[in-house]
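Worked example (supplementary).
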Amino acid sequence: MGVKERREREKSETRDKILDAARELFVTEGYEGVSMRKVAEKIEYSPTAIYVHFADKNELFHELCRQDFARLQEVMKSAEMPADPLERLRHIGRRYIDFGTHFPHHYVFMFMTPHPAHEPDDEDREIMGNPEVDAYALLKWAVQQAIDAGCFRPELQDAELVSQTLWASVHGVISLNIAKHQDPWVEWRPLQDRAEMMLDLTLRGLRNPAKEVR
Amino acid sequence: MGVKERREREKSETRDKILDAARELFVTEGYEGVSMRKVAEKIEYSPTAIYVHFADKNELFHELCRQDFARLQEVMKSAEMPADPLERLRHIGRRYIDFGTHFPHHYVFMFMTPHPAHEPDDEDREIMGNPEVDAYALLKWAVQQAIDAGCFRPELQDAELVSQTLWASVHGVISLNIAKHQDPWVEWRPLQDRAEMMLDLTLRGLRNPAKEVR
DNA sequence: GCAGTAACTTAACGATGTTAACTAAACATC
DNA sequence: GATGTTTAGTTAACATCGTTAAGTTACTGC
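After joint prediction of all chains, the assembly is encoded as:
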């Protein structure tokens, strides 16, 4: 009765082939630059074969990004975390910026492109809220730790709000860089300087002056 | 010899008709949602007529945004500016966020979409660096004022770097909101709360503790 | 009157995402 | 072992897109 299993395995193999081909094109060309036909050509299938495995182009690249994000999140969490809660937040911010900088097309598709609202599916639900695989949950966890340790000003008690603001701050640096870094209108300072200043400003703004450092 | 003038006026009239039709569609549908054919249909011209007035779709909407930005910047600067340099920065940040919130499609096209680098033309050069019409120049000016007034920590002397970071901070709030506000993954706090917290954090982070308030 | 300019149209090209109808092979059932 | 069902994959086609090339047509300057 291993027949069904083998068929499923075969199907998921060509599914993976599609994803790999799509990934290779996506990394250099971005969402708009990749066509279903090009993906199909790369694996020597007809364009419509993709629709057996994915509902449409959007879902294909959504799945692609989900996989790659999970893998990168794994790398991220495996790195050592600073013990000091504020330094931990700085660390997370830096990693996040690295990530967005190295995979700009992923970042554009996932965080800079409005998508129609979609109910989370089972696979989403497995990730959501789990700091091991969900970067936002990791951030929220680190923020809560900082609150509990008294590192923030006492009026800052909403971990959700603080997390969303911190996310927005590093997102601002990354996304503005991706969209505008080659715009001659602005004399851009080095990305790293902007990133460090952003982390410096926000963490200073959060810090509880009553709690001395060290 | 007013013939040439009349012809030019007529031409710029249909140019304006194109821009108005494009704008109406653009505001509700966004860049990808508007086609040249739809714009043409709206003004009862053939699609290719547009190419007499604009090199391509990108240029059409670039011009559209340039016009609308200039108009809005006019509104922005006409409002009274707080005397205190830090409050002035907060004021600018709030206006900027209002703007991005009310014209999300403009904002997406101008600040969230990577465009190929293009040399500034004459019209661009007229705007660039002029705080009256260039929002970034206005921000830089306000930052320099704050530096000169000693409102920032003394090590913060690079107005360009500070401006870019402040811009990124509010840009982060706006753009993340546009792209993700309907994502059920995150329990979003109200936009205004996130905006105010961002301004609070960054301005606190900049403030010179040696200079007492008031 | 005649040549020239230029706004505008018609027709078409190549590309896109996607659907409908079909093929062919593997499977389950009798 | 024939028969019907499922399903991965194909071919052909549709509607739409941005854009170009080749007209047309009206007006202008001479």
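Two points are worth noting when inspecting this output. Residues 3-4, 7, 35-37, 47-48, 51, 56-57 of chain B lie near DNA strand D (CB under 10 Å from a C1'). Chain B touches chain A through 49 residues (CB under 8 Å).
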